[in-house]
Specification:
CATH architecture: 3-Layer(bba) Sandwich
CATH class: Alpha Beta
Number of strands: 18
Order of helices and strands: EHEEHEEHEEEEEHEEEEHHHEEEEHHHH
Strand content: 25-35%
Number of helices: 11
Bound molecules: flavin-adenine dinucleotide
CATH superfamily: FAD/NAD(P)-binding domain
Shape: globular
CATH topology: FAD/NAD(P)-binding domain
Amino acid sequence: MKIKKIHIIGGGLAGLTAALHLLKSGFKVTVFEKNSYPKHKVCGEYISNEVLPYLKSLDVDPMRWGAVIIKKLQCSSINGNILEAELPLGGFGLSRYIFDLELYKAVLAEGGEILQEQVENIVFNGKSFKIETFSNKEFEAEIVMGAYGKRANLDVSLSRKFIRHKSPWMAVKSHYSGDFQADLVGLHNFKGGYCGISRVENNAINVCYLARLDSFQQYKDLDRYRKEVLRQNKYLDAFFEQAEPIFEKPLTISQISFDSKERVVNRVLMCGDSASLIHPLCGNGMAMAIVGARILSECVIFHLKHGTTRDQLEASYSREWAKQFRSRLEWGRGLQKVLTNPTAANIGIATMQHTPWLFQQLIKKTHGKPSAA
Ligand SMILES: Cc1cc2nc3c(=O)[nH]c(=O)nc-3n(C[C@H](O)[C@H](O)[C@H](O)COP(=O)(O)OP(=O)(O)OC[C@H]3O[C@@H](n4cnc5c(N)ncnc54)[C@H](O)[C@@H]3O)c2cc1C
């Protein structure tokens, strides 16, 4: 088999996992990442155990890096209704600061190349790709994976549909010290959004919330918003009363799009958030990035080993992706509508207090089944 160049744009969870998978299968890989490691990212940092068998097959063990085991979910509405249930699969808490850094080290140890470059443009000439970076360098490759996250300059240069629409969502994340049950992930509703709380390594507590921009814009100040909006939920109030921020200031992002996206654009194979972002309340985006990397790597390996056409590669990837993710994305959209509507959230949580099996079924609908490579 002639050695082909595989280039991956974006060195987050999707890009690094795909790189590791391909390297372990004997392929040469170059990852382009615009930032240096380590770096904090806006994320709830709760990861479903769905990914553990696959990570193990890549010799990745998050417990070695201090991941915290999480078994229960607690969900509250603004008026104080609360629901607690065992998570069917469970999960773990690990900061992106550590997770991405350790995967980066694993890719380097496996012989992968990681270039600190921001890709400006990707052009397909009918046979191969030309990758242009902001530092005026050019690279050529036969296979290109887009794993550059939720929203990037490349979405504009690739003329993707979702980038034309403004998104009403913003998110804020910070680490805290204080009291919070280690095996629990909290999901607390407030007017305009919801807030996730869970432990990560080193006794830190990650607090990450998603809010509608129009609800935040009336306050324009994170401290005031936390005090006057988030703390109206008594569980969030009790948490913030005793917790101390570890970060100097919170990280914020906006324009978070949950629109559906194309899996293949100009022959670039999209993976992770570049292929679609599930609503964060499902706590499944990272698992989707990791499982998506597995599916894409397997399709690329089959294509290279069996000499299938590019059309066949793209069709098999799109089919496998939809089989694995379409349904959980739809359930995520439905649940987001309920949880961001205070009346619906109150009624929903009150109802499920009496039907915990229903709550567990809903969690299952937004998650996949564990599987190895
Ligand atoms: C508020 C919020 C809370 C969340 N909470 C959770 C949770 O608790 N659990 C969960 O499972 N999921 C959660 N998610 C989802 C999760 O964060 C994402 O699904 C996950 O980060 C996707 O990984 P990725 O590799 O696709 O993207 P990323 O991790 O964003 O990686 C993309 C990488 O590409 C790089 N990049 C971008 N453009 C370029 C370029 N032009 N050239 C080179 N590099 C580039 C970026 O620097 C970045 O490192 C949450 C999301 C949000 C918004």
